[in-house]
Amino acid sequence: DIQMTQSPSSLSASVGDRVTITCRATQGISNYLAWFQQKPGKAPKSLIYAASTLQSGVPSKFSGSGSGTDFTLTISTLQPEDFATYYCQQYNSYPITFGQGTRLEIK
Amino acid sequence: QVQLVESGGGVVQPGGSLRLSCAASGFTFSNYGMHWVRQAPGKGLEWVAFLRYDGRDESYADSVKGRCTISRDNSKNTLYLQMNSLTAEDTAVYYCAKDPSWESGFFDYWGQGTLVTVSS
User: Fold this and answer.
1) Do B107 and A55 touch (CB under 8 A)?
2) Which residues of chain B have a CB within 8 Å of the CB of A96?
């Protein structure tokens, strides 16, 4: 199985900051990488697929990059509604696997 | 708009069974693959199972293989997850999620989830 590791596991930032979350796969997954946002008590929301393509309706403040084993999610100009937990997910092969999540908190 | 509404969760004793349902609307259900993803309390996301649009290809996580069966009724726009031999480790919120094609492997829409609690 492909293991996905996110770093950091938690992150404190201020409104207006720009943050980057990293996701690493244990083997190459090309660009078969998606990112999700989840707020407490809510279902996940799809943000990005194919490593860098925004889902419809997702603001351009979110951006993704990477290929192979190393990927990043960058969120620019943080707003209060961006504070949430973010997950990466590989879909290069079954079983589909997720990173452990990165909790983004307000400083 | 796309809507996915899960139901069927509840409290079940260890060793028991449960069938979850996911009612889909707002898209042509029979054209898309569907997934189940779960989240144990306070934990991360775990993919559970996938079923192709026509029901002819399915995949399962090792943690549920042999105990769970994913199925669909395209005439009713409904996805199912039959879960047997449940243990405490199956306690989680179960989400159904839509694949953006017949078998891409990622998710564009999620339901709100249904809670399964395995406890005596």
Assistant:
1) no
2) 35, 47, 50, 105-106
Pick from B36, B99, B102, B106 the residue to mutate for testing the A interface (most A CBs within 10 Å): B106
Residue A82, sorted as left (phi over 0), alpha (psi -120 to 50) or beta, turns out to be alpha
Nearest CA in chain B to A56: B108
Could you identify the residue written with the tokens 């938690």? A10
Mean pLDDT of A9-21: 97
DSSP chain A: ---EEEE-SEEEE-TT--EEEEEEESS--TT-EEEEEE-TTS--EEEEETTTEEPTT--TTEEEEEETTEEEEEE-S--GGG-SEEEEEE-SSSSPEE---EEEEE-
Mean pLDDT taken over chain A: 97
Q: Is the pLDDT of residue B20 over 90?
A: yes
